[in-house]
Amino acid sequence: MTPAGFDRRVALLAGVGVASTPALARTRVGASPRFLWGVATAGHQIEGGNVNSDYWVMEHVPGTYFKEPSGDACDSLSRWREDIALIRSAGLNSYRFSVEWARIEPEPGEFSDAALAHYRRICVACLEAGITPVVTLHHFSSPRWVAAMGGWEDFAVVDRFARYAEATARTLSGVVDWFCTMNEPNAQVTSKVLQRKPWAAEPGLRAAAARAVGSDRFHMYFLGDSFKVRDVCLAAHAKGRDAIKAAIPHARVGMTLALQELTPGTGGEALYRRIFAEARAPFYAAASSDDFLGVQTYNKFETGAGDYLPAPADAMKDMFGYPTPPGALAAVVREAYTHAKVPIFVTEHGNNTNDDAQRIQHLRSAIGGLEAEIAAGLPVQGYLHWSLLDNFEWSSGYVPRFGLVAVDRKTFVRTPKPSLNAYGSLVRNLRRNRPWA
Fold first, then answer.
1. Residue 50: inside a domain, yes or no?
2. Which of 41, 132, 255, 397 is the residue whose CA sits 20 to 30 A from 140?
């Protein structure tokens, strides 16, 4: 599956930067803590300069709907050690981050030894800090050559993704045993089911994208046929999972899903059923063959006849006015386990707000609800807060604030918010008082 000579190069990379110390040995594969408490980020959103990705193209084409380009993001491509130190300082034991396919395979079949070694060094540094790395292989952004070949509507990308997954897993063998293949591949299907009108500039944007890379098929926001994308993503997930396990047989592999709490409102039964049938059920069925299912919950929505109903006036809301009740997390975890029947891993959860006191309140209440589900016997393997840093939030630019740590947009200096310490204190208290934690 990998190009000629790649296995030999991977064997050499597998020894890069790995100190044979007792501390590292204790945190190697198979020695994960009983419960993973941590934070999550994504490469394109924090690294900066991801110029070979389709998102970089999308951010810069004429007519783009992105409020601003990602640029240097949080400069985590060079400051990743600072990020790991922040996680360790809070007493957390897990870090989910994504590797960037566009850096690892900038051209089809052309793998970057330097990029692979870079991501391996991050994993080794995590282990040396007592932090379990959780690696996501595809967090929305793809190499621009994937867009040029027709994007995620073309089943040819399935084999390309599996080749990339195996190459990356072989390089990370011995230092990672938790992998998420794809991030929220169901998100664009939900949007399509809601049948929201395209923005007025979409035709011009498509034309500009086609001029830039020879195709207007970009994943994930939201050009093209979302139902074709869904089917290709499900096939890529399955083949990617098998490729990872071919390289690391004991690896724990799953995907993550965008799962807001969803209930039918007045006149909303049909829309609720369609969203579930198109954007949830096929993914739950696919996840039933995995080692875990990553749950990612932020909001609660009630369906009406053709769209979500307005949020109640007294609901807790995020910066954009979306309802974000803390109890949504427990509700979604129950739903996901009921249908997928595999252990649940909360791979993202947070609150988009400038009010850090509200973030702390939201975090404590949501984890309290999660704790009740665990006490009732639901198998949950970990909780990862989104996000460690105030980062680039796709088309919304740098306006949303999900981070436990503020980042200066000019100097990239990291300033922990009170919520980071509050989260760490909550985790320490649970470890003292709850045997599962």
1. no
2. 132
**Residue 315 domain boundaries:** 6-44+80-136+162-203+230-433
Q: Is residue 63 part of a domain?
A: no
CA separation, residue 311 to residues 170, 266, 323, 342 (Å): 47, 13, 6, 32
pLDDT of 324 higher than 50: yes
pLDDT of residue 29: 54
Tens-place pLDDT, residues 112-137: 999 999 999 999 999 999 999 999 99
Determine the pLDDT at residue 222: 54
Q: Domain count of the chain?
A: 1
- This prediction has a pTM of 0.93
Alpha-carbon span 48 to 431, nearest angstrom = 35
CB 378 within 8 A of CB 344: yes
User: Does residue 74 form part of some domain?
Assistant: no
One DSSP character per residue, 210-226 reads HHHHS----TTTT-S-H
Would residue 66 count as lying in a domain?
Answer: no
DSSP H helices in 173-307: 187-193, 202-213, 226-247, 269-279, 281-287
Can you give the CATH number for the domain in which 296 is found?
A: 3.20.20.80
Cross-strand pairs, 109 = none
**Which amino acid is residue 38, in one-letter code?**
G
User: Helices (H) and strands (E) in the chain — how many of each?
Assistant: 17, 12
Hunting for tokens 């850096």 — which residue is that? 103
pLDDT higher than threshold 50 for residue 289: yes
Q: Which pLDDT band holds residue 108 (cuts at 50, 70, 90)?
A: very high
Hunting for tokens 């011995």 — which residue is that?
174
pLDDT at 254 over 60: yes
